[in-house]
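Throughout our pipeline, every protein is held as a single compact record rather than as scattered files. The record that follows is passed on verbatim for readers who wish to inspect the format.
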Amino acid sequence: MSRLPQARPPVREALQRLATNGLVVPASRGWLIAGINENDLRELFELRRLLEPVGLDKLVRADDRAIAELSGFFDEFRDGIEPAEYDRYFERDGEFHNRIVEASGNSRVIRFYSIVETQIDRGRHFLSRGFEGRAETNLDEHLEICGAIGRRDADRARAALLHHLHRGEELMASHIRAERRAGRLDDTAPGRS
């Protein structure tokens, strides 16, 4: 865990915003970069399972252009994902999940998801170190969601999305446990349960 120095007012305000998003926590002398533990992960994925499906019903009733765009969202990766492309794939992954949420048209859901997404991105970057071997399965899951959207099948899209989120949660939890066992993860930041 990295310790950040005491902050002056403009920086303090920025740190307060980061704290609101759960990225830093106040300490007796300054701030600490927030750790991530299995409980944090479980809570984030619970929120994802609640928020992300909200847009699917509206999405499958969207115009043909929107359906075509999302059903082909991962076409550039259909031949597989090379390790050098992981960053671009993760970026595309985040865009895809955002587009699903945005399809809800609910400004409060979208705004709340943007806060959750900050934490989700931390998880994606944390996981990227252990992503080898999961890329093809992850892509297949995304393609299944895209296919259901293309067929305008909200029930199948929801089931595929929830399956994808469950698999991601389990993989990340396993990675957190492995990192902790190897001594590379201190997930006991102040304020963490």
Notes: The chain has eight helices and three strands. The radius of gyration is 18 Å. Helices lie at 9-20, 38-51, 56-59, 64-71, 86-102, 107-128, 135-150, 154-181. The chain has a mean pLDDT of 84.
